[in-house]
Amino acid sequence: MSSRSRVEAGPGDSGESGKRLQVLLLDYEMAREDERVLTNVQAAMLSVGVALLAGLAALISSSCQFQTRGPGAEDCTQVPAVLLAATPLAPLSLFSYVVILGAVATVRSYYTRALEAEIQRAVPIELSALPGLPAASFVELTTEMASFRRGRPGYRAIAVLVLLCNGILFSGFSLYIVLALPRELAVPTATFYGACILLLATEASAESFRGRTFFRRLVHRYVDRGPVSILAEYPRRSAAGERSLGGYLLWPRPQDAIKAAFVPITFGLGALSSGETSGTELARAVGVWLILELLIYQARYQWNDIRGFFSDLEHTAGEDRRRLPGPATAAAARFRISGIVILVRLLVAAIIAVALPGLDLVVPLVVLTLLVFVLGVGYESLRAVENQPLARAGGPVAPTVVALWIVVGGGYVIRGLTGLALAVDLTGRPALLVATLVTLAAFGTAFVTLTWSLEATNFAWREGLCSLVWPKTELLGRQHVLTLARWLPASLTGADVEDLDHTIQDQDVTPGPELGAARPARADAGGLALWRPLRRRPSWSAPYVLATTVAGGAGAVVGLELADPATGAGATGLAALLGAVLAGLTVLVASPLRLAVAGAGFAALISGCWALGSDRPWLAAVPWIVVVGVHVGFGEQSWRSLKYPWDALSGAMAAWRLGLLRAAVGPAAWDQLTGTRAAPSVRPTVVSPVQVTVVPPVRAVEEPPGPGAAESPTERAVQSPR
Questions:
Q1: In the chain, N or C terminus with fewer CB closer than 10 Å?
Q2: Could you tell me the pTM of the whole model?
Q3: Helix runs in 61-178, H state only
Q4: Could you state, in order of their start, the residue ranges of all structural domains in the chain?
Q5: Cβ atoms < 10 Å from Cβ of 591
Q6: In the predicted model, is pLDDT for residue 434 greater than 80?
């Protein structure tokens, strides 16, 4: 059947084809008009960029850096070296904008050609003045001349010449300036502009010589993501996709970035205590911090991911944990390239330490590397023992599991002590050193056990409405996580069910199989990855409760030692007791009250330190509030919010934008815009530009449906035993 016969198949089809043709023609007209405007803008930008380069070259030639000899040298203008180094930024911004416009032009070219193909299918006519040439083929025709793949050789040569001339002109101008700069400024300037030129050349090549591949990848990304309405709530992730190998090697543990805050926090406390920090000390601290977090610890994480590669692939929340990507069949290749990157990271750390002798980085980085990997050897040895049954379910906690909690918490000791040692000389202050070690070890244990308690929810599933089913503690390789389930709630309350069901609706998480059926493949399916189990009042024997209490007492001593180094033993003992009592009271209440109790405890500790004679009682209470504040924050976390903290921020911003938009257009216009009118006592959720789904508040149902009645997931969700 020909194209014409397909179009004229029937009255119904012709009506639909007419509407389709109108949309295609309108889209084509808009694309052509946009192309004309963009062509003029590109031409103007290129001419402005060349003129700007010429003007700047003439201007800087009159500066004293370029007038070292000859007539007129005494009349030169003294230009600061930093300002001179920044001169190429103006043409760089223009050329960068031209490259951005070029990327848009590439997308438009391929998209317009696709529109032309669709129009030609809908209206298969030829131009009578040009026999054989179909209508709506202008862009395809110009492509025959201008394409870098199949265009005219002369045109391609001219286009390449334009790119080369601009690249050589900007590169030469930048080099001309770099050679006149002082050596300490010339190296970073040359590195920056060299990287910019390389980036521009790469992007220009991608959108010109490899434009077809560029467009295909862009289309695939758009199709995979799908269109998103500007009025809909922001898209929540229901399951994270697997990481690319390149992204993993660049940053193995982005979700552990919060740990990088420990060095700056403890360094800041030490700097406040000493009252003076030189520029060299600050630069040394920044250098040690960046190398420790970006190179040493990331290499350690890569080694851990190699050791646990196969177990991570089988983890229930493996996609959320974002470890070394699979598949299992590529294990050898993954291990090889990850091992190479580990060595490269450590080599780069050593090169930086040797290349900056003024910062004295060699000794601290060698010590830190040894500590990180010695602790890593202990951790991996304990994990190997954990692959054997250690304890029966409900029995005493296995010593290996407790040792794992403490060893992993030791990483926080390394980080925190590093920051404090970079600001304060600890060799002559044994009380501060011991108190810091105890605080960081206890805090690290609390942090780890709180995190793993949330991870344990990935292994449980709902049975019925409120009952929870946990796997046996003997699950090999996961006993350090599942042991913590004994301190988590054994069932859901009505408030938990209501909170979970509303969160599932808001976050677009598929409820999965019917409740009471077999265990779902992912924790998302049952919604427990969104459960916040730490909100309830915990048991006093929970490891994170005991550890936070100890850390609170020792943290009060650390604060007192930082604020007043000459504090006596009696005052130190009273501060430890007061800090431990206040920390214990804070963590033993339910989450809604913890913040208020923590604030009251902070004020009480400041008053107590002032009564003990501290000149800076606020500083003495800062370590305590940091320790307790982290525990309070965990109380409002689920496994999903812990791993994706930006989702909550994005949700709040989306709700704020929708509220602002509704206030701007007014309630009546908003109702017309969304196609509905909000009813009283309901909870509206905007899901598209033209639809609002009204979800009634969850309420208790006195009697469940009969055994013969059809029971939907929504009907089950509202049977909350409140």
A1: N
A2: 0.59
A3: 81-85, 89-122, 138-146, 153-178
A4: 3-225, 245-455+538-640, 648-717
A5: 18
A6: yes
